[in-house]
Amino acid sequence: MQTVNMERGRLRVYLGAAPGVGKTFAMLQEGQRRAERGTDVVIGFVETHGRAKTAEAIADLEVVQCRSLFYRGLRVEEMDLAAVLARRPRVALVDELAHTIMSDATGGPEVAPKRWQQISALLDAGIDVITTVNIQHLESLNDVVASITGVRQSETVPDRIVRTADAVELVDMSPQALRRRMAHGNIYAADRIDTALAHYFREGNLAALRELALLWLADRVEESLDRYRDAHRIDSTWPTRERVVVGVSGDRESQTLMRRAARIATRTTGGEWLAAYVSLRDGLAGVPEDRLEQLRTAAEEMGGSFHAVVADDPADGLLEFARGVNASQILVGASRRGRISALLRPAIGETVIAHSGDIDVHVVSHDDARRAPLTRVNRTALGRGRRAAGYVLALGGAAFLSVALQLTPNLHGLATESLLLLALVVATALVGGLLPAMLAAVISSLVLNFLFMHPTGTLSIADPENALALIVFVLTGVAVATVVDIAAKRTQQAVRARAEANALAVLSHRVLHSGGDPAELLRQAGEVFAMSGAAIIHTDTDTDSDGDGDGDGDEETVTETWGDAPTSAAQADASAEIRPGRLTSVARRRRSAASRAVWTYAAARPG
Do residues 529 and 598 touch, judged by C-beta distance below 8 A? Predict the structure, then answer.
């Protein structure tokens, strides 16, 4: 038996801001145009609402007989889905996409309880469908519409149904014109006109609904434009709307930059802004996860959105993201680096400006840039013990090599002596990091000059070639020490990242097998992160602990415990908010700083 793959039908939606704008009339007119071109068109269901012009628009279009049934004592008509499928037209006109299907009084089952589900069945059968819907019936806008009009719509349609339509056409009408249509009796019956004009059809309500419809459709048009640009591999930006991308590093100036981006975006109607944090692809350097969550929350509170981007270079990642979202402007902070560092490598802002093309770039000054460059507290990932050992090796190693080489003058020459002292610099870098290695390089150069370069016993240099060799020795020693120090820090970061990833993987596996039991989950997490006890604490911020009526007391209630659990957040060695201000996970007696860091990271993860 041969299997026929039926092509899915195409969906066309007429979108309106409110009842009465002319959606059904436009649908019927489109049906008439197609029928005149010879297309097989039928009306699956149409709701005229008693409007004469709408009924006249049906004209000679074929109407599939509806199902008549009784619902709560009333006779109603619903589309006969089986009859339309049996008729198999090329195009079916089906009104009111968000409508809920009424069931028989006898409780007879309806295959599709929603009109949009009936339409999906027609599309699956290869039948093109033309339908109508108002903006207030979209599921994502239900709360917004209720806050504007004071009426919550009980009949809604998932956004994806309209978003994935092959064509969405807006049937637009100004609030003033729509109110005139209402007053002339072209929308509702005479006994409903005054009430409608005084409530739902107020000019402010209609203007807000119209704006919602326009903005929603503008977003769909932009999605279509993005698909077109991707399909045709168009990399240049098409600034159809003002879109500002602000690069954030996670440091103190990030929120200042986001506030500036928000002000720029709100200067134009329909403008938007996006914060982008670029994480290096090696995954070894970055800001803590809780800091990223703070930035995400701050961006959303300011009316923007937060995005994390992975790239090999921060400037390249920012530019690639900006082009991907069709940004018209990029905003970056001024560099805090010193002049020497800027000469050795251009700042991110300079690189963005050089490669931005037709995207405008704003470099914004901030307090951190106006002050001296920030002093880094932790310049190296090595502990104090290793740094101290590095200084000891720099001093002791130089003394030991000096004595050993002095005692064996006939076994080596200047080249060997230089290589041995350079090896000391490398060894010092491996043990203590960059600063001890730089000290070793300086001491080794002095030892080489004083003891082994002619004339010996003095710091003066007779041969200019030896002076050049000494300079090259110092520079080589510092360069090698820098590379070794960076490699050592990257290795340590990689080991820690792998340990955190392994711990989170183990925890994820155990969460899947915890059966949803909070106590069991605490036990599993505590064992993974080497804690002696853990608890979940609920904080009631509405409690008035001091009886003065101001409600300023926060009462903590332990809801779940495991092991030697702390009874309050103050007794915990590590804590993380599960639900900000309400629910906190706490743990006691951490065995390492890494355990505390990973516990905080894991507890703070969404979900």
Answer: yes
